[in-house]
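Input record (Table S2, row 606):
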Amino acid sequence: MCGIVGYEGTREACDILIDALSRLEYRGYDSAGIALLGQGAIHIERRKGKVEELRKILDGASLKGSIGLAHTRWATHGAPSEKNAHPHRAGDVVVVHNGIIENYLALKERLKKGGHVFVSDTDTEVIPHLITDYAQKGGSFVDSVRLALKELKGSWAVGILKESERTLVAAKNESPLIVGVGDGEYFIASDIPAIINRTDRFIFLEDNDMAIFRGRDMRIINVEGEDVVREVRQVRWSTEMAEKGGYSHFMLKEIFEQPRAISDTLLGRTREEEGDVEFEGVVLPDLAAVRKIWMVACGTSHHACMIGKHMIETNLRIPVETDMASEFRYRNPIMLPGDLFIAVSQSGETADTIAAMREARSRGASTLSVCNVLGSTLAREADNVIFTHAGPEIGVASTKAFTTQISVMFLLTLHIGRRLGILGRHDVRERLREIRAIPRKVRSVLDAAPSIRAAAGRYMSFRDFLFLGRGINFPTALEGALKLKEISYIHAEAYAAGEMKHGPIALIDDGMPVVCVSPADRTYKKTCGNMEEAMARKGNIILISDDGTHEMAARAAEVITVPSAAYELQPILSIVPLQLLAYYIADLLGTDVDQPRNLAKSVTVE
Ligand code: F6R
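Output record (fructose -6-phosphate complex):
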């Protein structure tokens, strides 16, 4: 999704903005642009393609200016091109935007009739025109911005620069935007990693906030013109956490960070002595009255929900319904007041998930979000929030967010189980021992990376993969297939192993490797039967299992053995080799692993 950065201070803004923009590249984009205000006029440069292209033209230009905005665009309205790249300008107002203006056509028609001339195909361009339109009618700059923003329907985070008044405005509605507070300087950004090397103090703007920067002063008002006070919060992510640290890609670094990330998820929450789990500040509603738990998310986070469902239903016998956020919202779900709605999201900014949580709240559910990003919309809006503490996830393909989400769900199951008296102290103590061992076990899977890389070399030229798993392993198969298709662009689909014979078996031949996620759990024998069926049709089996001695292992084309863990935790160990397999195949194919084509890290449009 689009990335916004801005600067207002005493230093030269150009390098600061380009550095911040390059730290947002992980969000996914197709063009980039910058606006700098020096002593005279605003200077704008835009390029299709990478930030590097923009940097090249700026290097020779030695542009001066201590106020500016920059932007990476992920095309929604209008093709990726220089004319559609941001910033967009009307009069002396320049705008960068993330989100979608749903009523832009009507606004554009009206403005055109008033004499405004448009030069791009974007929805964004209506914003500077609308502001200048209000200004032409006599409004002050801030009032013109306010009135313009009030007219917009949809989601927007915007940076607005006014040349004649040397004023910068940052405003948002349903798209993220933060302010970084430095010493005598301010930064704006779509996400923390963009400016974590500049400051550790942040203001998380709320919907309809407008931060106005003028002559080193900042004031925050809402679109009604009322002053609002927002807390400055400290974020303890280090600069190194948002850098590659010697790894060739963020994704690989993040895969290898999983032992530490899972340990951090557990930190301060487990009470071994009492056999309990506590989440600071979390007060769940009357759990005995909860008839149903809902777990709703998108993509990888949705797969984590499917695993969470197994955990809660198996251990607590409370019905759990999972859904993709984009589906949940529009299917008129039958919720009862008091149901517990859990929204799961790495970014906390996924538009579909936010909309689903709002829908659930309007139907009387109590809301809990499981998020990675402090200050994100889902974290702020939910009645309760549990942070995954995975650290910044920069690679577009989600890895450590997934395994820490599963870890949170395990802890949450124990927490609820204890509160309802379903799990006893001894039970929970035993389970805590199991999850404590997981970081060490993940480390031992990571030790097998060289042999997984070798296997990747043997399979990189196949164009179709089938992933199979049963029970709690089915979401792992879905996640393994998602990883492969996202970053290598190889077609991969996942099926519940028992479903294979109802259709996908028709595809199997020696050109389609079949990845079977099959630890020696209660579904093992059945999945072995499915592997037999695939092998009978010349399918090459890649087996991920904790049982390397089974005769199936001897007959599979590849076996990746992982340590054994409790049934509910095995997915953490099974997914790591699949993350590595996808990573190494993509890397060998030479794709853009951290910023795969067409994908965005934080999907802030519906
Ligand atoms: C997959 C991936 C996406 C996200 C999805 C939800 O690797 O990254 O499928 O999982 O867009 O994002 P969050 O978790 O930020 O809500």
